[in-house]
Amino acid sequence: MNAAPPSVATPAAPLRQRGQHEVFCGLTSIIWLHRKMQDAFFLIVGSRTCAHLMQSAAGVMIFSEPRFATAIIDERDLAGMADMNDELDGVVARLLERRPDIRLLVLVGSCPSEVIKLDLARAAERLNGLHMPDRRVMSYSGSGIETTFTQGEDNFLAALVGSCEREAPDAPASLVVAGCIADIAEEQFLRIFEALGIANVSFLPPRRSGATPAIGPNTRFLLAQPYLTAAASALEARGAARIAAPFPLGEEGTTEWLRAAADAFGVEARKFDAITAAGRERARKAVSRHRERFQGKRVFLFPDSQLEPSLARFMSRELGAQIVEIGTPFLNRQIAASEIDLLPKGIRWSEGQDVDRQIDRCREAAPDLIICGMGLANPFEAEGRTTKWSIEFVFSPIHGYEQAGDLGELLTRPFARRDVLTVEV
């Protein structure tokens, strides 16, 4: 294992395992991305399996018309009987004719398209030449090969940064909040930033594709999600500077996240405390209703979403839980440093996964709650264990002061469910 720089916090004796692992496909990030960007359309270039996965994962109602679809690679394409680029051009033309509201078309690579080396970046460039300026076309990889599902959003945002305009040399200082969060949380944060006197605030991704911010050396950015390694690198490559902070989950995380932005923009501490006091109090009160039920509970986190360090910090410091193991698919020690610093020393960490060995460790520890992917939850429930799907934390509004109580409720819900279950022998 490479040693971390002295300035970066490092978990004590982390396990790094590279065995069989259980993850969700990166294509599933489209489920929340297509809801966020209201004039974008995500066209997956993949197989029928990709289409079935997305339909099942999204639970799309029969009367709805979602802003994603799959251009299916079939046997004719694989056998070389058809030119796949011509086929893709035809699908795109029909799609844009049917959906004139599309302003940004996103070609999403999948395992099948990457295995057969279909160059979607070049296809996007070609299609841009056909459909600009009314429509813009871009591409990114949502493949599930050796990745976890939140990396789909990371790859998309990195590609989106590449399409942003460059900041003018004399542009005023600006703040970009990177990471897909619920609209309600975005509006709450924007009100707080305005009250603090922080101007020129943009969110990435924006709700409309035309609202992407200009990025350059006068840009500072806050990550709203801990899994945005590629997006952070893309922003820094443009000259933007990252504001290091914990992530805005719970009262403490939200306060320290906002404080980091306030410090970066020279907001006085007295002003910051006055503006955030009411929100902090509401958040503490909302979380306290769940602390009694969660206090002392032992929690085991399997690697799935890369939210695990932030969730563990919230459970440990605000709900009083005992963390048995924090598993995460990948650990960016610089991005996670502020979270690691807040966690109790001596917690067992694991990066990557050997799922059979991790299941054995979990069974031996016999925790009160297991946070894991859906593929592991049902077998654990069949053994009489209490679980929580980690994907729910990505789908649910959990960021900020007003959602702190909702995050606590999500974590205590498995215990409430267990209390009402009647098991017949």
Structure report:
The chain is α/β, with parallel strands linked by helices and 425 residues long. It has 3 domains: 26-147, Rossmann fold (3-Layer(aba) Sandwich), CATH 3.40.50.1980; 174-271, Nitrogenase molybdenum iron protein domain (Rossmann fold, 3-Layer(aba) Sandwich); 286-420, 3-Layer(aba) Sandwich (Rossmann fold), CATH 3.40.50.1980. The protein has helices at 30-36, 48-58, 75-78, 84-98, 111-115, 120-131, 151-163, 183-196, 229-237, 250-264, 269-294, 308-318, 337-342, 355-365, 374-382, 391-395, 404-420; strands at residues 15-18, 40-46, 68-72, 104-109, 136-141, 174-178, 201-204, 219-223, 241-242, 298-301, 322-328, 348-353, 369-372, 387-389. The strands form 3 sheets. Strands 1-12-11-10-13-14 form a 6-stranded parallel beta sheet, sandwiched between helices. It has a 4-stranded parallel beta sheet with strand order 3-2-4-5. The N and C termini lie far apart (48 Å). Mean pLDDT is 88; it is low at 1-8.
